């Protein structure tokens, strides 16, 4: 019977991870990357130290700077950074426009190495919106943005019939397309007939009532061609109702397609 001889199997001891070249290569690579990122984040020439603001009239520069200061600080590890590369321009834009309804648009630019440039465009008042015995400035886009008094000079009053729960500054209270039509009526009467608008009542989604500086009203249909209605009004004033014949005029109704009524 043949004897079988087995050679004893030697188990090699595992090499420590700390003796592996690949471990130290990865460790050193990560260390260098971390150190590089840390250096870049806290690199002094990239820390924001200058803010340039332009275009503001009503909003004070100091107020904007204070608001920006709270949005550029980044708390990392045990220190705070104002690195221009980490700053969110969208966040700054949102925080400023939400805080100041008078601002129509805002552009935030990074100017390396350490400057923020803020360009502001404020809303221009177009009329005064009346609601619940209060008055607000409203722009040509239909956005209310500031409380005011009833006797603010140079603007006509806009009223809107319907359910308005509350007036929130910085929001659209009158539809933009309606405000565009009101602006057309205003320009059409001023430029051609030298008549100013005193009040506008948005009576419904279809009807717009305009009170003129001469005391009579004009009724417009918001669902049909507003340019045609303005043309009809001016032709009527020029041909049938010259200024000397308007003393007793009460209204001119332009809402119907085929005919203009007046009394």
Distance between the termini: 136 Å
> What integer is the average pLDDT?
87
Largest sheet composition: 10 strands, mixed
Oligomer: single chain
Query: What is the H level of CATH, i.e. the homologous superfamily of the largest domain?
Result: Cell division protein FtsQ/DivIB
Structural class: alpha/beta
What's the CATH class of the largest domain, please? Alpha Beta
The DSSP helix count reads 5
Helix and strand run = HEHEEHEEEEEEEHEEEHEE
Principal-axes shape call: elongated
What are the low-pLDDT stretches, counting only 5+ consecutive residues below 50?
A: none
Q: Total strand count, please? A: 15
CATH topology of the largest domain: Rossmann fold
Main sheet: strand order: 10-8-7-6-9-11-12-13-14-15
Radius of gyration over all CA atoms, rounded? 35 Å
Provide the number of structural domains. Answer: 2
Binned strand content: 25-35%
Q: Approximately how much helix is present in the residues?
A: 25-40%
Q: Would you identify the CATH architecture of the largest domain? A: 3-Layer(aba) Sandwich
Describe this structure in words.
With 263 residues, the chain is α/β, with parallel strands linked by helices. It has two domains: 44-122, Ubiquitin-like (UB roll) (Roll), CATH 3.10.20; 127-262, Cell division protein FtsQ/DivIB (Rossmann fold). It is 29% helix and 27% strand. It is built from five helices and 15 strands. It has helices at residues 21-41, 61-72, 89-99, 176-193, 226-239, and strands at 50-54, 74-76, 79-81, 103-111, 115-122, 127-131, 134-138, 143-148, 157-160, 171-172, 197-202, 207-212, 217-221, 251-253, 261-262. The strands form three sheets. The protein has a ten-stranded mixed β-sheet with strand order 10-8-7-6-9-11-12-13-14-15, covered by helices on one side. A three-stranded mixed β-sheet has the order 1-5-4. Helix 2 (61-72) crosses helix 3 and helix 4 (176-193) runs parallel beside helix 5. The longest helix is centred in the first third of the chain and has 21 residues, at 21-41. The protein is elongated. 20% of the residues are buried. The model has no long low-confidence stretch (mean pLDDT 87).
């Amino acid at each position: 019977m043949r004897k079988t001889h087995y050679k004893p199997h030697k188990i090699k001891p595992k090499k420590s991870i700390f003796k592996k070249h690949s471990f130290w290569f990865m460790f050193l690579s990560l260390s260098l990357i971390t150190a590089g990122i840390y250096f870049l984040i806290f690199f002094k020439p990239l820390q924001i130290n200058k803010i340039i603001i332009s275009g503001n009239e009503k909003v004070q520069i100091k107020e904007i700077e204070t608001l920006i200061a709270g949005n550029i600080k980044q708390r990392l590890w045990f220190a705070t950074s104002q690195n221009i590369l980490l700053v969110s321009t969208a966040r700054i834009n949102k925080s400023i426009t939400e805080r100041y309804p008078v601002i129509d648009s805002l552009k935030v630019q990074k100017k390396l190495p350490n400057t923020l440039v803020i360009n502001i465009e404020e809303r221009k008042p177009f009329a005064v919106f009346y609601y619940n015995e209060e008055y607000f400035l409203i722009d040509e886009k239909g956005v209310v943005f500031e409380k005011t008094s009833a006797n603010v000079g140079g603007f006509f009053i806009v009223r809107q019939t319907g359910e308005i729960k509350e007036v929130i500054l910085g929001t659209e209270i009158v539809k933009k397309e309606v405000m565009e039509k009101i602006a057309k009526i205003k320009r059409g009467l001023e430029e051609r007939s030298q008549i100013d608008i005193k009040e506008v009542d948005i009576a419904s989604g279809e009807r717009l009532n305009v009170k003129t500086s001469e005391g009579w009203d004009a009724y417009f249909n918001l669902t049909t061609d507003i340019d045609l209605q303005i043309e009809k009004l001016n032709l009527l004033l020029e041909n049938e109702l010259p200024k000397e014949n308007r003393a007793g005029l009460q209204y001119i109704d332009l809402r119907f397609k085929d005919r203009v009524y007046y009394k």
